[in-house]
Amino acid sequence: MDSVHPKEILQVSGDHDAADVTSWLSVCPKGLWKVQKKQTHKRDQNTACNAGDDASQSSSCCPRLGSLCQVRVRLKADVDETESPVTEKGNGELSVQADQPITEVTSVAATPFPWRPNSVLQVPLGDWITLKLGEGQCDITEACVEGMRAGEKCEILLSPVGKGSDVSVAQPGEESLPFCATVELHTFTPGKEFWEMCPTEKWEWVRSHKERGGVRFRSGDVWGAADSYSRALKLLITLHGHVKEAEVKGQEEEMEEQKDTNKCDKTQPLHKDSSEASATEYRTIKAELHSNLSLCQLKLNQPKWAKASAAKATQLEPGGAKAWYRLGQACQMANELEEARQAFRKVLQLQPDSPAAQKALKDVASKKKETNAQLGLRLSKMFS
Fold first, then answer.
1. Fewer CB within 10 Å, N or C, the chain?
2. What letters, b where the CB count within 10 A reaches 16 and e where it falls short, cover 56-94?
């Protein structure tokens, strides 16, 4: 499965035991964090995978989208190096050895655990839990597990990025920054690459990410909501060709039906192909995702990105008042007052009684008047 975030391979010089360090940015509650991962325990590929070409086998040896993964995350300070190999039960539903075939744990469900607004790692520390890869509930852990095989372990070093990250953490041991943790993958169930999925499966993932984004936003996890909407949009892009093809096919079938009805009773209603609805739904969901992403970016004080997202939403759904309002807000934050005024006026065309748009227009007019007054004052000083 393609990683959610771009990863950079840092070569570590040394003896033959030296490992490559992978570095990337992950989305956590309250901000972005830099993750540096080093594989510390690798499993023999001959025991982890069936015999065959490494290139063709590598993806099947690692978890993919939808895989249920039994993992354990521990802070480095809490890891007992003398601990025996994994044999304990995880969440009470799994009890498997590291070399057990992954097909024997397909009935296990993902472990439910609450969202922690001040936790970087999100998952319960020290416990074996089951994650469904691709849901994005714990971005750091998922990104680590993507390239691991059953029975492998890695170390990660975590540090906050920029001022946009809230470094307050609530879980024990996360107080000192940066901090180090270990991620272990016990076993996992089969999954799929996105290009192996049928359109119906992709739609299910898109709707799931969209719904999860709404839940995260309402709970206060704005970064997580933005991540969910972004994941949905990435998958939605892969559906464009299918939707376009279905729409063309539907139009051709409708034209054929029109020819047939011309020979029959013209009052008989035409059968409407479901592909038309699918194309409409595609544009509507894509517009909603861009609009929701824009709202997240506004909350995160990213007016440039919020403007771009809202503009895409208005192009897809010109009648969407929310997208126009968010475009106006983004332009207003960026001090692009004329564009903001035009966006808010568009909202009033769609919803003449909108008090929010009426107030926003007054605020823009007041700000523009203030700006012009300040400009006039500076000019008068220059030529006085």
1. C
2. eeeeebbbbbbbbbbbbbbbeeeeeeeeeebeeebbeeb
| pTM for the model | 0.76
Tokens describing residue 159 = 């540090």
Q: Going edge to edge, which strands form the sheet with 153-160?
A: 8-10, 21-28, 31-41, 153-160, 179-188, 68-75, 128-132
Query: 157-193 pLDDT, tens per residue?
Result: 999 887 544 444 444 444 456 789 999 999 999 999 9
- Determine contact, residues 51/109, Cβ cutoff 8 Å: no
CB 236 within 8 A of CB 282: yes
